[in-house]
Amino acid sequence: MGIMNRKLSIKMPPAEFEGRRYSSGFSLFELLVSMTVLSVLLGFLLAALTAVSSLYVHNDDTTRAEEKGRAVIELVSREVTPAVIDTRMQFVMLPGEELTDVGAINVVANSPAMIWMAPLGPGGELRCIGYFLTADTDKNHYRLKRIYIKHDNPDNYFPNLVNLDEGTNVTKARQKDLESRTSPVDADWFLENWDATAFDDISANNDQVIISTVSDGVVAFWVQALDTQGNPVPLLSQSDVHPASSLIYNSAAYFYMADETSFDDGSTFVYLKQNRLSMKANRLPAAIELAIVMISEDNLNNGAAIPPQEDVLNDAAALDLDASIQQYTETLESSGYTAPRIFRTTVKLINGG
Description:
Blueprint: H1 28-80, E1 92-95, H2 97-100, E2 112-118, E3 127-136, E4 141-150, H3 172-180, H4 188-191, H5 196-199, E5 211-216, E6 218-226, E7 249-250, E8 255-257, E9 269-271, E10 287-294, H6 297-300, H7 321-334, E11 341-348
Antiparallel strand pairs: 1-2, 1-7, 2-3, 3-4, 4-5, 6-10, 8-9, 10-11
């Protein structure tokens, strides 16, 4: 009861604090200042994150382009190394436009194609292999394409070889017929049965297609034949003595290739006129120089047109690969495409020379 009867006492603040107002929060001014500082800090943070993100995406695209470029060079090198040739078949480098004539779609102007035979099947079975460059310029989609044809292709796309059932009992007339199938001036031995269906890799129901995409982002593609002494082979199309041809290199053309010793005039490769004594060389290059230029995906999407590929020839009418690459990359950069990636290699052919 004593406790209940006690009077509640409230201690009053000292007199010097009378009339002052108390507050346990921030003033409106302080809140505004805090929010302003926070907004500035968030802005800096967002800018930093955007820069880091852009750098990451750029580096990722560059890394992927680097990986794809090396993979392309490795694949082509591996498949061209065992290329084979005899009197029944060819190895050709040709203008890509000639594939357009038989149905290929969007082949890049002024770019080459390369087609050959190689024992890449199970047990060393021959396969027809080729590479060429395409572009959908409306979408800036540049793609290196690969041709791959099995010997049992049901659509007659595989080049026509001698009937193996004939064995060694081939008459001289038959042998001459077989040899006549390969031309010194064209690539029809490969192309004669190819058509638009063979190159249509867009239609899902097309089971006759012989091509596939190797890599996106390849905007330029060069192939260069080298002779036994490592010199660039003059373009067949530039010869003023050989029968007229649009081909870059043709194993079935009329030519001599020097071995260890140069010819009397110091040259190492010479084309011949056609006469009754002329014989097709039926020789592979000793080596192949390959080069591609790749652009990363983010760079390729900048909207600018990709400049056309152009070849620079030396005084011997052979491709000057160094000058061609330099001229093209300078043109690319002047068009707004920064840091194009160049991949190149020299591949010695096992059966070459």
